[in-house]
Amino acid sequence: MIKLVVGCDTVEDLLDWRRAHARAGEPWILRTRQTPKRAAEMLDGGSVYRVFRGNILCRQRILGIETVGEGVTARCQVTLDEAIVRVAPTPRRAFQGWRYLDHKDAPPDLDEEAFGEIPPELARQLREAGAW
C-alpha cells in the first residue's frame, strides 16, 4: 500500500507527530475510508509506503487490517508496526487516498549504517543520476 503523508515534510516530522499524539500502549493506527479488497495479501508481509512531498521515503509493516462500523459509517483501520524503515527515495506523483504498490515497484530498503543520514533531496538526485 502506498499513502501520502499530509502535514509532515520529513520522516522526522512524522516521528515527532507520533510521539506527540501516541498514548501509552496504543498501537499506531492508520485510518482510511475503504477496506482494501486485497487485505489478505497485504497482511502477508505487506507495508505502507509513505510519500513525503513527492518522494517515497519510508515504510511501515502492516500488522492488521480491520473494518470498523457498518454500512455508510464503515471505516478501515490499518495497524502498523512502530518501526519505520527508510527506503531509497523514489519519486511519486500526488494521488488521493491510497493505492496498491506492486512488490516489483517498491523501493529497496536503505542500509542506514552504510549511508547515514542523507538529505532526501540529495538522495533523490543521486538516484535520478544513476549514482545510487
From TrEMBL:
This is DUF1489 domain-containing protein. InterPro entries: UCP032025 (IPR008320). Pfam families: DUF1489. It comes from Phenylobacterium zucineum (strain HLK1).
